[in-house]
Amino acid sequence: MPDRMKTTHRGLLFVWIVVAVTLAASCTKSTDTEPRASGTTGSGTGTGNGSDTVTPEATATGPPGTAVYRYANPGLLATMSLDGDSGTLTIENDTGGELPPPGFYILDARTGDRVSGEVKDPTVIPNGQMKSFRVSFLGLGIKDIGLVILLIGHDNYGAFARQ
After folding, report:
1. Gap between the Cα atoms of 10 and 88, Å rounded
2. Four-CA torsion 74, 109, 60, 91, nearest 10 degrees
3. Which domains, ranges and CATH numbers included, belong to the chain?
4. The CA-based dihedral angle spanning residues 33, 37, 43, 48, taken in that order and rounded to the nearest 10 degrees
5. Cα 140 from Cα 87, distance rounded (Å)
């Protein structure tokens, strides 16, 4: 019986060594044929001299200081267009029921703080209708918006996606 235990332990040790060597080799392997992130030069040595720097691609469209956000759920489409610290919120209601007045808040990308948004003259949105509302917020530039969160009545419907 002691010989059998030695064989089992040796087998497990061998498996762990193979796994460790495989992981180490896959983490350090680098070739010029590897796919690279957009904006990389691919000629760097990994020394931090800037030659491996990734330049992110622009994801937002429109002039600086403007942004368009969209929220879509079955029967509900909300679009918020912002220019500076104000804009328009348009909601299309095909949910099968009346929606309470809308609202929103913003999470500051720098600090995570909640910034209250104001919807001017919010009203209920009947089923099958589209309504537009003027919106505004204070103390935050477009570039510092982390998330815009849609509120319907007192319910948090979730985050808009930036277009």
Report:
1. 69
2. 30
3. 1-57 (no CATH), 66-162 (2.60.40.1240)
4. -130
5. 14
The one-character DSSP state at 26 is H
**Total-model pTM:** 0.62
Residue 23: φ, ψ to 5°: -65, -45
Map tokens 């029921």 to a residue: 97
Contact 149, 160 (CB under 8 A): yes
- The Cα–Cα gap between 99 and 127 comes to 7
User: Nearest CA to 143 among 42, 26, 63?
Assistant: 63
Q: Which residues pair with 106 in a beta bridge?
A: 115, 148
Q: What is the pLDDT of residues 52-74, one digit of tens each?
A: 444 334 444 455 689 999 999 99
